[in-house]
Amino acid sequence: MRSSVASIKCISCGAAAKSELPDSLCAKCGSLLEIRYSLTRMSKKQLFGGRGPGIWRFKAALPFSTSIEPVSLNEGNTPLVLAENLPAAGSVGRLYFKNDGQNPTGSFKDRGMSVAMTRAKTLGARALVCASTGNTAASLAAYAAKARLPAVVVVPQGKIATGKLGQAFAYGARVFGVAGNFDAALNLVFELVKTHRDFYLVNSVNPFRIEGQKVAAFEIYEQLGEVPDYVVLPVGNAGNISALWKGFKELRLSGISRNLPRMIGVQAEGAAPIAEAVAKGGDVKPWPEPNTVASAIRIGSPVSWRKALAAIKESGGTALTVSDEEILQAREELATKEGLLVEAASAAPAAALKKLKLPARAKVVCIATGNGLKDLVDHGRQKEPEPVTTAEDVAKSMRF
To answer: How far is CA 179 from CA 156, 188, 201, 272, in A?
Structure first.
């Protein structure tokens, strides 16, 4: 069992992070940090039999002492939905969608935000800050309200889905817009935390965010009774693919599972620096003008690219792209055939299934990262009710 953080180390140079520094980037080389444990064998009862709100029932695998009081909105425990009506469902053994849009603020971000906010409170942070394409802003604002801490959100002006922006305001965050894209917003936030020590950064460069997000891997294993063969998920800033991979690796290292899934990242054609790097076999090169209707993955310079490429390579997975047209079509199919209303980015894995040639007996889990109500106003087809006068009008309109 784990009782506290074993170490926080740089993934590139291996330098240990100093506890008095914010949990962002390596002070020595500027690369990402990672929480590492001295892993010991753990029984299923130890991992899955814990108590606590939301993801905190997995406290045995989280980087805090057992006495910590978490900041939680009962995130996690989202359903794993068997897809039976999509065309792709007939080409594999089993196809599931992990519906993380049922988290408290409607996205997977809540998992990591709960852990990052708990860490912020233990450090005595005075304010929280993030750059965001929308979901992180909503999540930060909600969890900061719960923690009674002020929240600052920096977004690319005019490029945030209406529903997500509205959430950030509703939860009481201070929201600032910058000219340019998400990368410009993140650069401003990096400068802010570098020069003003009162602000605690909660973007996915924060390794505590990754610890919360990895819990989705534990839930998938618990819900399936085994590790799936493939995990397919949208990739933007690239923290989530590495988080899930970390969770599955910990299941194996703890002796709970023998198997690991192949990780498949999906990007939009107009914002695909990671898919490009995988195809060409090199490092990620920033895209200065990313463009896609899927605003959650409209990121041209993903800060977690090293972790993402490692997860793809280590797992024997891949990354590929889908067009905006394919994304919107897949979104419509998920809603009308499976009853799953997801945001545009979350439909990217479903769109990718048509391009992937997966084994006929494969068990596949797609991660639906966000709720469709977040960007329905922006991308939903706005229709008007059909006018009727009598019940007979309704009956005649139907063709059975």
So the answer is: 6, 11, 21, 22
Residue 354: both structure tokens together? 């048509």
pLDDT tens column, 78-103? 999 999 999 999 899 999 999 999 99
Q: Is the pLDDT of residue 3 over 50?
A: no
Which of 178-182, 342-346, 392-396 has the least mean pLDDT? 392-396
Contact 229, 262 (CB under 8 A): yes
> Per the domain annotation, does 73 fall within a domain?
no
- Asked whether the beta carbons of 283 and 332 are under 8 A apart, the reply is no
Judge whether 190 lies within some domain: no
Pairing of β 7-10 and β 33-36: antiparallel
Counted domains in the chain: 1
Domain assignment of residue 341, yes or no? yes
Each residue of 245-281: pLDDT tens digit?
999 999 999 999 999 999 999 999 999 999 999 999 9
With both helix axes pointing from N to C terminus, report the angle between 273-280 and 305-315 in degrees, rounded to the nearest 10: 50
Give the residue, 66 or 298, on which the prediction is more confident.
Answer: 298
Q: What is the CATH number of the domain that holds 340?
A: 3.40.50.1100
d(CA 135, CA 118): 19
Domain range enclosing 352: 80-107+209-376
- C-alpha 111/C-alpha 200 separation (Å) is 17
Q: How confident is the model at residue 1 (pLDDT cuts 50, 70, 90)?
A: very low
Cβ neighbors of 60 (< 8 A, separation 6 or more) are 1, 2, 42, 46, 47, 50
Greatest C-alpha distance within the chain:
74
> Is the residue at 389 inside a domain?
no
